[in-house]
Every structure is written in structure tokens, then in C-alpha cells.
Amino acid sequence: MSETNPAPDAGPIPAIFRAVEAVEAGRHAALRLDRRTGFAFARQLNAVPLGLTEIVAASEIPIVLSAGPVPVPVAVLGVRAEENLLVQEDGNWRPGAYVPGWLRCYPFLLLPATDAPDKLVLALESGAPLLGTEAGEPLFAEGQPTEILSAALRFAAAMRAALQDSVAFGRALSDAGLLRPQQADLTLRSGGSMRVDGFLTIDPEKLDDLPDETFLAWRRRGWVAPLYAILHSSPRWGRLLDWAAERATA
Questions:
Q1: What confidence tens digit (pLDDT) does each residue in 203-218 have?
Q2: What's the superkingdom here (predicted)?
Q3: Looking at residue 87, what DSSP letter applies?
Q4: Counting Cβ atoms within 10 Å, is residue 46 exposed (0-12), middle (13-18) or buried (19+)?
Q5: Taking the mean position of all CA atoms in its chain, how far away is CA 60?
Q6: Could you tell me which residues come within 8 angstroms of residue 244 by beta carbon, excluding any fewer than 6 positions away?
Q7: Which of 52, 42, 164 is nearest to 105 (CA)?
Q8: Is the dihedral of CA 49, 41, 151, 9 positive or negative?
Q9: What is the pLDDT of residues 89-113, one digit of tens each?
């Protein structure tokens, strides 16, 4: 399953994808998808890139920008390495909390074909616990993709487009000089403190100096709401600390 890809790179791929392979009827005819297994696969994922269209919904937790060559918006899921405070002990997602698109897309994603970079192919994580041969909905029937697989392709395409928009958004913030290195100094309820660093944030003072024509251009592109959502998510580190304390108590 594939489609044309005239658009640029979609940014970093989360570490939950380790061994991906193109979906093929011959190889994957017997596979079934069972999302009832929950989100245990993301238990050690402490941050995840966001598509532009989901930044506002995800701003209940801290959103920062990655410190790589092309900064992209990232939702912070935990305050320690390999910690996801939104995945509960039973593998379910924290009730009422936003589920990032990458985790709803898993175990599927779109990747450039190895033999044709202008073409995207639907791929899957070969060892995903959501895939098996016993329970769930089949990916193929009589050698043809089922609606489950077709829906996965549509969602993966929409997710990639949103991530490409995030890449353009992050690049524009960087080019405008609005980003600064930052760290979060956190006081733990159990005692002691810790510093989380290695990320970028938006500088409010530099944002105030942004030329009017640039701001209006960004408004036309739909970038103003996600920009301020990132700023307003800054106090949400306290929410992560509350969840960490709750987990420690449990």
C-alpha cells in the first residue's frame, strides 16, 4: 500500500518503532490488529513529537521543542528517562488525557520507499504487541487490504502531513530567533530535586518583538493557536510532578 509523497521530511520517529517493514500481503496475510492490548508499548516513552493540529489538545502537559537541527514540538510524558506517566499500571492511558497521534497511529507509519524516495509505503512495527494471528481484526482478507488496514493508511497519511506542518512551524520559529535553550528545575514531593534539560522553548519577549507582517503571515497559516498553546503549557510541569508523586505513593 503506497501513495505519492511530494512533501518534505516529517521529523523524528519515536523510539517505539524499532524494526519496521513495509506491509505486504504475502508476508502479513495472517496478521490481526488488536488495540485492546492498550498502550503498554509506550511505557518507556517519555516524550513524543506532535503534529501541528494536535498541539492545542495536548497542551495539558508540557510541550517543548526538540534541540535538534530542525526543532519540532514535543509532548513531555515523564520527568525521568524511560518514564511515561500517562501509561497506567494496567497498560491503559490515563483517563481524560490526550493520546498523541503517534501512539494512535502505532504500529503503522508511512515511510519513503527504499527504491523510490518520492513514494510512501505503509509500514508496520514487526514486533508490536498489538499485532498477532489470534485476536483482533484481520489486516487482509483473500489477499486484499481490509478496512482496518485502509483506515490505518489514511490515518498514517494524515499524521505524516500534520508532522510535516510541525517541521515547517518549528523551522519558522527557529529562523525568527524565537527559541532559546531551557531547563526545568523540579522539586519532587518525595524530597530532592532534579533538572530536565536539552530542549528549547519560545522566548515571550522575542515573540513580542516579532514583526507584524510575520505574525499575520503565521496567523494565515494557522500557527498562532499552537504557538500560544506551547507557551501556556509551560506551567504543566507541576501536573507531571503530581502524577509522579501519585505513582510513587501507589
A1: 999 999 999 999 999 9
A2: Bacteria
A3: B
A4: buried
A5: 15
A6: 78, 79, 80, 83, 85, 188, 189
A7: 42
A8: positive
A9: 999 999 999 999 999 999 999 998 8
